[in-house]
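Let us practice reading a record.
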Amino acid sequence: MIEREPEGVALVVDDDEVFRNRLCRALADRGWDANGAGEGGAAIDLAAKSSPDLAVVDLRLPGMGGLDIVRELRKLDDTTCIIVLTGYGSIATALTATKLGANHYLSKPADADEILNAYEKVTGGAPETSIDTSLSVPSLARVEWEHIHRVLNDCGGNISQAAKLLGLHRRSLQRKLAKYPPRV
């Protein structure tokens, strides 16, 4: 078997271990030397050691948040292409992420091909802070679903408290929660 040079070094920062490992494997299958971290401190340490060409950072992380990680990665290496991934997409967070140094912003679920396409857009002469709105603007149903789940998460899974904050009846909220997430 012929050993080939890796496409580059990738760093995947996500607290969802299954997603992180799957994305690292997919990037490795496409020729990248991919490493993963589940929290900010480990991500910064890995970035300091490996100086990644591509960093994929989840926005919502326990402890050090994704925006803080973007800021620190940008301080470590100005040439790293930073792509922010989140299940809670909004224009405001996309703008904040790009102001802090992110090169691109994608809504979850994003696969390795979408991430590498965004990487190619950034490194292939596209403007450094490009936001592809066809990929990052979710439907209204998706935004509602994400907002409900964000409020429920902030309430620690307490449906009654989340329903009160959302101005919904508890049973109406339960029906909405039983539905699958709408496609982006």
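A brief commentary: Residues 138 and 184 are 5 Å apart (CA to CA).
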